[in-house]
Amino acid sequence: MKKQFPTAAGYVRPKKSLGQHFLADDNIAQKITNSLTLRHQVLEVGSGTGVLTRFLMGHVQQLRLIEIDRQSVAYLREHYASLGDNIIEGDFLKTDLSAIFPGEYSIIGNFPYNISSQILFRVLQYRSQIPQVVGMIQKEVAERLAAPPGNKTYGIMTVLLGAFYQIEYLFTVNENVFIPPPRVKSAVIRLQRKEDFTLGCDEKLFFEVVKTAFNQRRKTLRNSLRGLWTGHFDSAEHAIFDQRPEQLKLEEFIELTRMLTK
User: Fold this and answer.
1) Over 70: is that where the pLDDT of 4 sits?
2) Taking each helix axis from N to C terminus, what angle separates 156-164 and 116-125, rounded to the nearest 10 degrees?
3) Does the pLDDT at position 13 exceed 60?
4) How far apart, in whole angstroms, are the C-alpha atoms of residue 33 and residue 213?
5) Is the pLDDT of residue 110 over 50?
6) Is residue 236 included in any domain, yes or no?
7) Cβ–Cβ under 8 Å, residues 207 and 160
8) Model confidence over 151-192: pLDDT tens digits?
9) What secondary structure, in 3-state letters, does the chain show?
10) Which CATH number characterizes residue 220's domain?
11) Per residue in 198-236, pLDDT tens?
12) pTM of the shown model
């Protein structure tokens, strides 16, 4: 696949340091953008050479792009000049996302594998503004996010994202549709924020419980969470503490947090 992406300043080349693999299949690009159903205000993350952008333009009421690579930004400004100041040169992970749009907005993007988890944690921070996310990530990570309790890949991100969003594994993408081809398969996921995305427990403690439990996932919860209480703890002999974190459903993590709060 020898597709080139020319700009007035030369060619946009994928950069290994940024984890760039440019999607070069229009059918896949359209399938990804069609997966986005909330289209009032949309932020495209890591727009690269605009393969998703051209399918979003005209189908989104307000579209903004954020891209860290200067070569890519130059390409986007040259080929999508009508977007003007809506093309933002910046680091998604360091940008104040509350200033991108007033009110709520959706996120879409082909996320670099090396920062996909960081992008999703960032989404969690701004969940009150982000009702929907459609993203392409490494297939292995997508399977982990969609894993049920009891599965060995069920982990921190599965529980934390699942607390606030419905997670859908939409479809798999093969390596040969990228420039350069990655060494792994990709997958597209959709996160749809729950109608009621309050937990009914101390959210800060909930995050701490989940992270602490999975960071010592071979231990029972009684042993891994012992540092979260001091002295006598009335519920410490509850049967839930005999389990390991991958055995617990979301509702049980919430109940566990309530116990520790008391």
Assistant:
1) no
2) 40
3) yes
4) 36
5) yes
6) yes
7) yes
8) 999 999 999 999 999 999 999 999 999 988 999 999 999 999
9) CCCCCEECCEECCCCHHHCCCEECCHHHHHHHHHCCCCCCEEEEECCCCCCCHHHHCCCCCEEEEEECCHHHHHHHHHHCHHHHHHEEECCCCCCCHHHCCCCCCEEEEECCHHHHHHHHHHHHHCCCCCCEEEEEEEHHHHHHHCCCCCCCCCCHHHHHHHHHEEEEEEEEECHHHEECCCCCCEEEEEEEECCCCCCCCCHHHHHHHHHHHHHCCCCCHHHHCHHHCCCCCCCCCCHHHHCCHHHCCHHHHHHHHHHHHC
10) 1.10.8.100
11) 999 999 999 999 999 999 999 999 999 988 887 767 777
12) 0.92
Token pair recorded at residue 120? 């999703």
Read off the amino acid at residue 241. F
Which tokens sit at 163?
């607390």
Q: Which residue in this structure is represented by tokens 């607390």?
A: 163
Last residue of a domain, one of 145, 161, 193: 193
pLDDT of residue 1: 44
Task: Give CA–CA dist 206/253, Å, rounded.
Answer: 7
Sign of the four-CA dihedral 73, 74, 77, 78: negative
Separation in Å, CA 10 to CA 52, 81, 179: 22, 17, 17
Residue 65 token pair: 């792009």
**CA 160 – CA 170 distance, rounded (Å):** 20
In total, the chain counts a number of residues equal to 262
* Confidence category of residue 17, pLDDT binned at 50, 70, 90: confident
| Residues in CB range of 187: below 8 A, 6 or more apart | 136, 137, 138, 139, 142, 143, 169, 170, 171, 172, 173
Residue 165 lies in domain: 6-193
58 and 132 in a single domain? The answer is yes
Those residues whose C-beta lies under 8 Å from the C-beta of residue 202, and which sit 6 or more positions away, are 257, 261
